[in-house]
Specification:
two-stranded antiparallel sheet, single chain, mainly alpha, 1% strand, 78% helix
Length: 327
């Protein structure tokens, strides 16, 4: 069973839009008599964020495959490793473009002005932390695309992996975690979010790369299986910690169940938790049934279930973007 990238993106966008509308994070029309960026520009913020996240996952997964999953000879990448790096170079370019677009529309929305007035307010836009973080991401992704376009060795791919990690980190420093009330909780929330995003990128991107580049590599599947377990544990722990911090657990005690079901943010966290539980169950079934079948030269069940798993992951990415835009 093969799954197209366009179908995954469409699924993620659909889930994101529905989640934003249901949870109260969707852009609101500007009241009459007031200026603003406009509804279309406001909607462009989460859409470009989703496209950037998808490109980041594709980039990270392909580079991870070249460094960890696929075979190399004397430090030189094999045929599939070279293919992965070339795909990653293209994805990094798309990541840079989405980041540039996100930078522009984010500045317009925060300043509350139409795009046509943004040039005149360039100094104000440049002072925004969110814009600065995205500008850093643009630099890293542009350099990353150049490095990957000429990547031939595992050593160069490792450098690219570090650059991808840096590009991932910059925008996370200005999200929900950065606006906590005290320095301690801000640092804890941000650190937890960074680990969460790294683990999710590795898990989703790694699975996508496995489906694209390593269908005949049993060793790659086994290596990814071990890595996926670490990612799942990291995502579960950091997801719970981050949600409790944002939902008020730091003040009112752990287990603040009412806010998980009475606020839009909490409802999306609950939906993400449910999707995560299904993904963990799929992982358990892989280890119990499909991996032994794959080792016995019966690969169909593993690849079918992996494709379904990747589809569910795409939906979860849509939920994650909606969560980042929900008060």
């Amino acid at each position: 069973m093969r799954i197209r990238t366009s179908h995954l993106l469409a699924l993620a966008v659909l889930v994101m839009v529905v989640a934003l509308l249901a949870a109260g994070g969707a852009p609101k029309p500007v009241p009459a008599g007031l200026s603003g960026a406009g509804t279309a520009v406001s909607w462009a913020v989460p859409v470009l964020r989703l496209l950037g996240d998808a490109a980041a996952i594709a980039t990270g997964g392909a580079v991870l495959a070249a460094v960890v999953l696929l075979p190399a000879t004397n430090g030189e990448l094999g045929e599939q490793g070279l293919r992965a790096c070339q795909d990653a170079a293209f994805a990094a370019g798309m990541w840079a473009v989405a980041s540039i677009g996100g930078l522009i529309v984010t500045a317009a929305v925060i300043l509350g002005i139409p795009l046509s007035e943004l040039t005149a307010r360039a100094a104000d836009a440049g002072s925004l932390n969110q814009v600065r973080a995205l500008a850093v991401a643009v630099v890293f992704t542009a350099v990353l695309a150049v490095v990957l376009s000429g990547c031939r060795t595992v050593a160069t791919a490792r450098v690219a992996l570090v650059l991808a990690a840096a590009a991932l980190t910059a925008p996370l420093l200005t999200g929900h975690g950065a606006i906590e009330r005290t320095a301690f909780w801000s640092v804890l929330a941000t650190a937890s979010l960074v680990i969460h995003v790294f683990a999710a990128t590795t898990w989703i991107g790694g699975l996508g790369s496995l489906l694209r580049y390593a269908r005949g590599e049993i060793g790659a599947v086994e290596r990814f299986s071990r890595l996926a377990l670490i990612c799942a544990v990291s995502i579960g722990v950091t997801g719970l910690l981050t949600a409790e911090i944002h939902l008020g657990g730091r003040d009112d005690g752990w287990g603040l169940i009412t806010q998980w079901v009475t606020t839009g943010y909490g409802a999306l966290v609950f939906a993400k938790a449910a999707a995560f539980a299904v993904l963990v169950s799929i992982g358990w079934w892989h280890r119990r049934a499909t991996l032994p079948a794959l080792a016995a030269d019966r690969p169909a069940a593993f690849w079918r279930l992996a494709a379904v798993e990747l589809g569910l992951m795409a939906a979860t990415v849509g939920l994650a973007v909606a969560l980042s835009r929900t008060p």
